[in-house]
Design goal:
With 216 residues, the protein is an alpha/beta fold. It is 40% helix and 19% strand. It contains eight helices and nine strands. The protein has a seven-stranded mixed sheet with strand order 1-9-8-5-4-2-3, sandwiched between helices. Helix 7 packs antiparallel against helix 8.
Length: 216
């Protein structure tokens, strides 16, 4: 798994329980609070949960033809209160990550590459996850490497790496109680997915789902 994360060209990699925990740990280690975290409107629910549980705000931006963040929409953003950008390489596409990184540098925005759906994808010899200072991936169900569990947080920053380890070490070990909570979350999540077309149901499902996710 560490060999897979070496494609991110990072000095430090931390194994986590899943990719979402890697995002949460990174946001916490970065010390971001009450900030807007930019994500594409086409994003997995649990990414938003990690942002909310890190005491930050989800800020949606429309997508482009690569199904991830549209650089033209980013250009129109006001710089105020933006903490970071999470850029998922969707469906194996590298996308416009180079333009996104260029915009981020001009505005002093942090870029986090989400490589959950594109592990091993490359462009001009550079792999997804190697275009910025931070990358995360998942080895969960349906991912490129499907272990059913596990993730990686990768960074070149020793300070952020050791801070993430410190926070991670305070988390509870997986036990029977957490297993029950995990099953409860999965049941709620499956219910949301199965009722995604019922607009009356969706607005009631989000908050309980995030509360259930916090327990795991």
């Amino acid at each position: 798994l560490f060999r897979a994360s070496n494609k991110f060209s990072k000095q430090n990699s931390l194994l986590t329980r899943n990719g979402t925990t890697a995002i949460w740990l990174l946001l916490m280690a970065l010390g971001l609070k009450q900030k807007k975290i930019i994500v594409p409107s086409n994003i997995c629910f649990v990414v938003n949960s990690a942002i909310i549980l890190s005491n930050n705000f989800v800020h949606f931006i429309d997508i482009d033809d690569n199904y991830s963040l549209d650089p033209n929409k980013l250009k129109k953003l006001e710089n105020e209160d933006i903490g970071a950008i999470i850029y998922p390489h969707m469906y194996g596409n590298i996308g416009n990550i180079e333009e996104i990184v260029s915009l981020a540098k001009k505005n002093n925005w942090i870029i986090i590459e989400d490589v959950c759906q594109a592990l091993g994808s490359s462009k001009d010899g550079k792999y997804a996850g190697s275009f910025s200072d931070y990358a995360i991936t998942s080895f969960g169900i349906g991912k490129i490497i499907d272990m059913g569990i596990g993730g990686v947080l990768s960074t070149n920053s020793d300070r952020i790496y050791y801070e993430a380890i410190k926070i991670n070490n305070r988390l509870q070990f997986y036990d029977k109680k957490l297993d029950i909570a995990s099953r409860d979350f999965s049941m709620r999540y499956d219910s949301l997915v199965n009722n995604v077309d019922d607009k009356r149901f969706l607005h009631k499902a989000g908050e309980p789902l995030i509360r259930a996710f916090k327990d795991i």
